[in-house]
Design a protein that fits this description.
This protein is mainly α. It is built from 65 helices and 4 strands.
Length: about 1350
């Protein structure tokens, strides 16, 4: 085997020439030659004769070379030094001090020569005139210079690459860690490399940087503070400016050796927390926040660095007194849990690695500090999006926070759900969570409502494409959102602010207007119909209201134009009328749409005073029914832009007004699109889409007739569509609406009228109705008379299949063409009464077949009108015909004569009672069945209400007839109550009826449907209650009989008081609807003044036991005695008055009003005004003495008043509906006997024993009550046990006191103990009294009303 050849350095020149001035070029040439020969030598010392390097070792570190001014000399010297270190590795041929100088030299060469040329050199200042141009040109030239200078253009770039390669590959750089001042050298490498790294550097160059810095970190012990500062500084810069090459370099290095930096990082952040974490000032809190932001940046990019910090953060979560520290740690730790693990990192799942920290973090959701709970909620989003394993637990905890006591937390939860990724919301969030967010749309706080609605609206908007494609998962998860929003928007108790918020969000997110440059009418209509397909009936009604077809906003601009900025031409009277009209409209808009009415009024006044004609024109275009979608979108856009420029403070106010007033849901352009969808349904559910188009067209024709003006020709064409009955119907309805509202735009073609007449004779009942209306208002004179004659001719054929259509047409003609109808009215009414109303109904026999063996007749049940027998449906139309005919004579002198027969018919249906129910039959011979009777009763009530719209007819309705109509609101069938209430809700606000009608909605106070509410006048309410068939009077004679056995009114009247609760609820219901701080004094005044009048209804009778009593007064008495007896007689007479029930209810109302005022903190002052009672139902007491006695006579006993004062004071609502387990008279009597025995026993015992037995009895009684109460919780059981212990202790103390006085005298130990015992005894006595009062309250709870909770 040949011997290995030993390499030697063949360099014979002296590196540094002595004795003469050194030439730079010659030195550079020698260094190049030396570097070329050194790089050929192997690293292995056995293959290289290192002694041959002795001549050049020392000269290479000479100051002449290391400090040479030439850049090339230094570059080649650095390469030579790297070669020497490579050849000598792993040792070095230099001392520690020499190595220090070498590595300092190498670091400086790399960082100085690879750095980009400085761009912050201050240039000469240009002249002031051209300063701007000079600065711009200079910045452009600098940017061009930097952009053109590539890294490869750096002088001696190849040598620097060689140097970096050598240091990274041989790792000789690690020698710098052991030399004196090594920390500074290592820090210089980190700081230098982060300065010189550039985006255009090659991957190899960046790899050299990473290898060198990684080697230094692995070898350094400990990590130099400067290195840690450099790393942290790069993360701070990243938070400010985003990613950079230097930051990416540090991230790559940290991910190579994360374990080396864990302890230093822990120490770094611990020191910051220790210095600034306790009671932090604002500056300290900012420092803490910045440090936690750096933590999160590190965890996102280098998760391995912060593993050791998790226990510290977990410990911070338990820092009881340091809320800021808990807040920041909760947010940081939650965000760390939510970060997705980096591929290749050692941290796979932080929650699994630190289960204790995970549990501690979950517990912060119920932290007592609000900022901590907020931080927990905000941090949970990342977990929902990024961690399927933790999502279920986090979602359940987040759902729990929906009901947090603080609105900020509730709002944050809603916001987090709205920000989750769509795929997460679609596939992973539960329906319970989304519906819990939906429930917050009715929150009391505005911010919570807004965030909840925005969150769900955003999710629905994201899901629109999948909903349109009928994706089942999207429908299940998000399809219900518009429905819930509409339910919240138009619920009865929705405040103004909620409605404004929901309207804006619904119109801008669910059905947003298109952009001005991308208007598509069909797309908007399709979106609207998609929304409508997911709505139930109440939500669809709310959507109809949302269309804005009614409102004051459209009258606002016309009032502004008349006002003319305050410059009004005309007299003072006309000027004042214009100002009053504008003020009324402004007040209506501000009250209806805004919470801050004063600000809205001020803004609207300012808008009117501005008198901007262009803005007026744009606003009118937005609210004009004739404007198409494109015009509305462009006008709205320009209007808001102009307001923002010239009236910025009015922008918010008018944005709300435009959301409510502009035609942004349906408009003129929607009609052709809806007709198209009704003709050719499309979408995921074509049938339902067609039904929605049909419903919307019907609604638009009913409320927005002007929108159809320009579509008359198209409606005439589709009117004759025999295949599509619904399309023909809406076409007729639209034509009828135009003919009635805009007669000049109605079609003048005779052929259109002929088609309508044919439809009235051969079409469906609804087609006949609208066809008759169109004919009645058409331009063809005599067309209505022709139609009446044609209908009569067809009626004579007695074709049952066409009967309903013919009668429906006559019903409409009686209302729309009364003159033509009256010409044939005798024949029509004769046919209606003889062949329809008095004809025996087949429904009775049908009902007989449905009887069970124990039934004589089928109970009244509700069946849709379309399912009734034809004759029964005809009878309903017969009542309409009679009613409409009577309305035609409302202003005729013979109106009373004409309406008499109609009233007789309606009263015969409503006023016949059987077993306490309205019979609902025309007469005994017609024998309508149960299903038909329900509709007859409802239709009779509705017809009466329609007739009452005419004041002349309203005055003719007698009290008994009125009460028969009113009691339909307490029918067993819910549909009767509901439909009558809906009609009342439409009619009552117009105030066309007499005041007595306003009380009718009060009769639904006991209705199972809580949504039936209205405003009611108190005096009429009490009168109706006093005459109600279910009124339970507290009969004085019966009281006398029962008090022989019962000693307390509270006991004898237990079952009666439960029944009376149904009447008390009406009053409480009224107060819930009407009472407020401003009118409570007026209500109390009315209730008290009722005792100064008497009831005009002669329906009450005196008490049975008092009928035989005479009030004769002897004549030979003294005046004082005679006066006293007269007053006593008047009192007895007052209590036997026919108005006694009314007075009792008035006293009850006074007590309930007092309770309400006290509970709400309202001042119940005397009312300064005067109140006049309606003369039709009340009359004054003419005898002054009688009036005085009546007003002073109490009609309720003290026990009853005491019990009444307890109503409205408890927070729990206890059901008071009578049940089958109510106490009977015998049970009450037995209770009275037992009470008498207890009284006798108490009278035979000593005071102390009696007191002890009384307490023991109360304990037993309470235990029995608790045992019988199924709803009592564990806490109440514990309370009762504590009371038992307290009572036993008290009995023991009392027994000690009874033994005699203390043995020792004053000042002794026994005296102190006695004083202490007395103090304890007094304290426990007070507790016993309190518990006894609570027990009494519990006994009285069963008698309280559901409506006494005023919280």
């Amino acid at each position: 085997m040949p011997a290995q050849t030993v390499q030697k350095l063949d360099f014979r020149e002296k590196l540094i020439q002595s004795g003469k001035k050194e030439n730079t070029d010659a030195l550079l040439k020698r260094l190049k030659t030396l570097h070329g020969k050194l790089r050929l030598l192997d690293q292995d010392q056995e293959g290289t004769d290192v002694r041959s390097l002795d001549p050049i070792r020392k000269p290479l570190i000479d100051k002449i070379i290391l400090h040479h001014k030439d850049r090339g000399v230094r570059a080649f010297a650095a390469c030579c030094l790297a070669d020497v270190l490579r050849i000598y590795a792993p040792d070095a041929p230099y001392t520690q001090e020499e190595l220090r100088d070498i590595f300092q030299f190498l670091s400086v060469q790399l960082t100085l020569n690879l750095k980009t040329a400085p761009s912050n050199v201050r240039p000469l200042q240009p002249s002031r005139a051209r300063a701007n141009e000079a600065s711009q040109s200079q910045s452009q030239s600098q940017s061009q210079t930097q952009a053109s200078q590539r890294i490869t253009d750096v002088p001696y770039y190849t040598e620097y690459i060689y140097l970096l390669d050598s240091l990274a590959t041989i790792k000789s750089v690690i020698l710098a860690c052991d030399v004196p001042g090594g920390d500074d050298i290592v820090t210089s490498f980190f700081e230098g490399f982060t300065d010189i790294v550039r985006p255009d550097m090659s991957k190899n160059l960046l790899r050299y940087f990473i290898e060198i810095l990684t080697s230094l970190l692995e070898e350094a012990n400990p990590i130099p503070p400067g290195v840690l500062d450099c790393v942290v500084h790069q993360f701070e810069l990243y938070l400010q400016d985003g990613t950079s090459p230097a930051f990416q370099l540090i991230v790559d290095v940290c991910n190579r050796v994360p374990t080396r930096l864990q302890r230093p990082m822990y120490a770094h952040f611990s020191d910051i927390q220790l210095a600034h974490g306790k009671n932090p000032s604002p500056a300290d809190f900012k420092t803490l926040s910045d440090s936690h932001a750096v933590m999160l940046a590190m965890y996102r990019n280098c998760p391995g660095l912060l593993v050791s910090l998790v226990p510290l953060l977990e410990e911070n979560l338990r820092a009881a007194d340091e809320v800021p520290l808990r807040q920041l740690s909760t947010k940081t730790l939650g965000t760390m849990f939510g970060e997705r693990p980096m591929v290749g990192s050692d941290v796979a799942d932080l929650a699994k690695a630190f289960p204790g920290a995970w549990r501690s973090w979950l517990g912060r959701r119920v932290d007592k500090a609000l900022p901590v709970r907020l931080s927990w909620v905000e941090a949970s989003k990342g977990i929902l999006d990024g961690h399927p394993e933790l999502r279920a637990e986090t979602e359940a905890a987040l759902r729990d926070r929906v009901h947090d006591s603080d609105e900020k937390v509730r709002a944050a939860v809603c916001k987090v759900v709205g920000l989750v990724e769509y795929e997460t919301a679609l596939h992973n969030l539960s329906d319970d969570t989304l519906r819990a967010i939906g429930s917050r749309m009715s929150d009391k706080r505005s911010i919570v409502r807004h965030e909840a609605a925005m969150a769900l609206a955003k999710l629905w908007k994201l899901a629109y494409a999948e909903l349109e494609a009928n994706d089942p998962e999207a429908r299940r998860q998000f399809g219900w959102i518009p429905e819930m929003m509409l339910h919240c928007l138009f619920r009865m108790d929705a405040p103004v602010e909620l409605r404004t918020q929901m309207t804006s969000i619904f119109k801008n997110q669910i059905i947003p207007l298109p952009k001005p440059d991308a208007v598509d009418e069909q797309a908007l209509v399709d979106r609207l119909m998609l929304v409508a397909t997911y709505l139930d009936e109440p939500a669809y009604k709310a959507l109809e209201r949302l269309t804005g077809l009614k409102g004051y906003s459209r009258a606002f601009i016309s009032c502004c134009e008349e006002h003319n900025g305050g410059i009004i031409d005309g007299g003072d009277k006309e000027e004042q009328q214009i100002k009053d009209r504008l003020s009324y409209v402004i007040n209506a808009i501000a009250t209806h749409l805004f919470v801050d009415v004063d600000k809205a009024t001020k803004d609207l006044d300012a808008f009117a005073l501005a008198n901007d004609a262009r803005v007026y024109k744009l606003f009118k275009a937005c609210v004009d029914p004739q404007s198409d979608l494109r015009t509305i979108v462009k006008s709205r856009h320009e209007l808001l832009r102009r307001l923002e420029q010239s009236h910025h403070d009015l922008l918010d106010t008018f944005s709300v007004i435009l959301d409510n007033a502009a035609w942004n849901v349906v408009n003129h352009s929607s009609i052709p699109a809806l007709i198209k969808r009704l003709q050719r349904p499309e979408g995921s559910d074509p049938q339902k889409a067609a039904q929605m188009a049909y419903n919307l067209l019907r609604f638009m024709a009913k409320e927005g007739a002007p929108m159809f003006k320009s579509h008359v020709a198209e409606l005439v064409i589709v009117m004759s569509d025999k295949k599509n009955h619904r399309l023909a119907e809406v076409a007729l309805q639209g034509l009828a609406a135009v003919a009635k509202a805009e007669p000049e735009d109605a079609p003048s073609d005779r052929r259109a009228v002929d088609r309508a007449i044919k439809m009235a004779l051969e079409g469906t009942p609804r087609q006949a109705k609208f066809a008759a209306r169109f004919v009645a208002y058409s331009k063809q004179k005599g067309a209505a008379g022709e139609l009446v004659d044609s209908i009569l001719d067809n009626l004579s054929d007695k074709d049952e299949d066409r009967l309903l259509s013919l009668l429906r047409g006559l019903s409409e003609l009686a209302l729309s063409a009364p003159v033509a109808f009256e010409e044939k009215s005798a024949e029509i009414i004769r046919f209606v009464m003889q062949d329809v109303m008095y004809k025996k109904s087949p429904s009775y026999e049908c009902n007989r077949t449905e009887l069970t063996p124990n039934q004589d007749e089928v109970d009244d049940e509700w069946l849709e009108e379309e399912e009734l027998e034809i004759l029964d449906r005809a009878k309903l139309l017969g009542m309409r015909i009679c009613t409409h005919r009577a309305l035609g004579f409302a202003r005729h002198p013979e109106a009373a004569t004409v309406v008499k027969d109609t009233f007789t018919l309606l009263q015969s249906i409503l006023s016949e009672f059987e077993n306490g129910k309205l019979l609902g039959q025309v007469n005994e011979k017609t024998m309508e069945g149960g299903h038909a009777r329900a509709h007859l009763k409802l239709r009779a009530a509705l017809c009466t209400l329609k007739l009452a719209n005419a004041r002349a007819f309203d005055k003719l309705i007698e009290p008994g007839f009125f009460e028969a109509v009113a009691f339909n609101l307490q029918e067993d069938i819910g549909q009767i109550r509901q439909l009558l209430l809906v009609k009342l809700g439409d009619v009552l606000p117009a105030q066309r009826l007499l005041p007595r009608w306003n009380i009718l909605p009060s009769l639904v106070a006991n209705d199972p449907d809580p949504e039936h509410t209205a405003l009611l006048p108190l005096a009429r309410l009490l009168l109706v209650l006093s005459h109600h068939p279910d009124y339970i009077d507290i009969n004085l004679g019966e009281l006398k009989r029962l008090t022989k056995w019962v000693v307390s009114l509270h006991q004898i009247n237990a079952d009666r008081r439960i029944k009376l609760m149904s009447n008390f609820r009406h009053i409480e219901f009224f107060l819930d609807s009407v009472a407020n701080r401003d009118n409570v004094s007026l209500l109390y005044h009315i209730a008290s003044k009722i005792k100064t009048v008497r009831d005009t209804y002669p329906t009450m009778t005196p008490d049975a036991d008092d009928e035989g009593e005479e009030d004769e007064i002897p004549a030979n008495l003294k005046p004082d005695e005679k006066k006293r007896l007269e007053e006593a007689a008047l009192r007895r007479k007052a209590k036997r008055s026919t108005s006694a029930n009314l007075y009792r209810l008035a006293e009850i109302a006074q007590v309930l009003i007092q309770n309400r005022a006290k509970h709400q903190g309202w001042v119940l002052s005397s009312y300064p005004g005067k109140v006049k009672f309606p003369k039709d139902i009340f009359q004054n007491l003419h005898d002054p003495l009688e009036a005085q006695i009546t007003s002073r006579t109490p009609y309720l006993s003290e026990e009853m008043l005491s019990w009444l004062r307890g109503l409205g004071k408890r927070t729990e609502r206890v059901a008071a509906v009578p049940t089958s387990e109510e106490p009977s008279v015998s049970t009450i009597t037995l209770m009275g006997i037992m009470q008498q025995r207890k009284v006798a026993e108490r009278s035979s015992t000593s005071p102390s024993k009696r007191r002890s037995k009384k307490q023991a009895g109360s304990v037993k009684k309470k235990r029995k009550q608790e045992a019988s109460d199924d709803d009592e919780d564990e806490s109440s059981d514990e309370d009762s046990e504590d009371e038992d212990e307290g009572e036993e202790a008290e009995e023991g103390e009392e027994s000690e006191q009874e033994q005699g006085p203390a043995v020792l005298g004053r000042g002794g130990r026994r005296s102190a103990k006695t004083k202490a015992n007395k103090a304890v005894g007094k304290k426990k006595k007070r507790a016993a009294k309190k518990s006894a009062a609570e027990a009494e309250d519990e006994e009285m709870d069963v008698d309280q009303s559901d409506l006494t909770d005023l919280e």
